[in-house]
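PROTEIN DESIGN WORKSHEET
SECTION A - STRUCTURE
LENGTH: 224
TOKENS:
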């Protein structure tokens, strides 16, 4: 019997190599477990945040929005009407757009408003009808409501009322006095007239001479 029969057979192993391998394996396993725990915690937080109720979000939006229910309803109606106008305008052909009356007189539009108001149509319907004929920019709905209110209160005139402005500085007596001075001396100047009428400005005198009396200057002489 040989003395080598009891020797361990197999590949050679370094002393302590197996223990080092086991240590690295345990370290790698702990690192994987720690990573899985962090990933799981992040998923739980994400799940909790994604499960936020819709009611809380709505309440937050209401708290930030300072508009009243009436304002919200009005804006919703305006948005709906704007969408309807856009769709209606998009559905028109080129021929229909050409047939629209452009740049109507203000009194014409007011006459239409008066006629439709006499038929007891609401202001919104009147505005819709005149926009169909004259275009969307002919008159705003607020102005239509104003004219409807005035016609219902008894107004019959569709034209603008005369406004009280600054009285004219040119009177008939002043024009007659300037004309008399000119006929006395046709070689006059505006400066000379200004000396004769110190209370009247040079621009007013020039307006009287050229605009009212129709005098023009020929060879340094003003002739009618």
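SECTION B - SEQUENCE
RESIDUE ASSIGNMENT:
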């Amino acid at each position: 019997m040989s003395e080598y029969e009891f020797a361990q057979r197999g590949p050679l192993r370094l002393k302590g190599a197996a223990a080092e391998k086991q240590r690295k394996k345990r370290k790698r396993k702990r690192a994987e477990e720690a990573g899985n725990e962090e990933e799981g915690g992040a998923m739980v937080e994400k799940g909790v945040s994604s499960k936020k109720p819709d009611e809380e979000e709505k309440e937050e939006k209401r708290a930030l929005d300072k508009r009243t229910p009436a304002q919200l309803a009005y804006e919703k109606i305006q948005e709906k009407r704007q969408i309807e106008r856009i769709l209606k305008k998009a559905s028109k052909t080129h021929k229909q757009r050409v047939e629209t009356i452009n740049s109507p007189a203000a009194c014409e539009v007011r006459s239409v408003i008066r006629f439709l108001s006499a038929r007891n149509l609401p202001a919104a319907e009147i505005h819709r009808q005149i926009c169909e004929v004259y275009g969307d920019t002919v008159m705003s709905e607020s102005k239509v409501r104003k004219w409807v209110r005035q016609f219902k209160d008894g107004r019959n005139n569709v034209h603008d009322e005369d406004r009280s402005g600054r009285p004219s500085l040119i009177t008939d007596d002043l024009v007659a006095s300037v004309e008399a001075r000119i006929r006395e001396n046709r070689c006059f100047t505006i400066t000379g007239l200004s000396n004769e009428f110190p209370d009247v400005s040079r621009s007013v005198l020039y307006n009287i001479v050229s605009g009212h009396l129709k005098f023009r200057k020929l060879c340094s002489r003003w002739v009618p």
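SECTION C - NOTES
The mean pLDDT is 76.
The beta strands are 216-218, 221-223.
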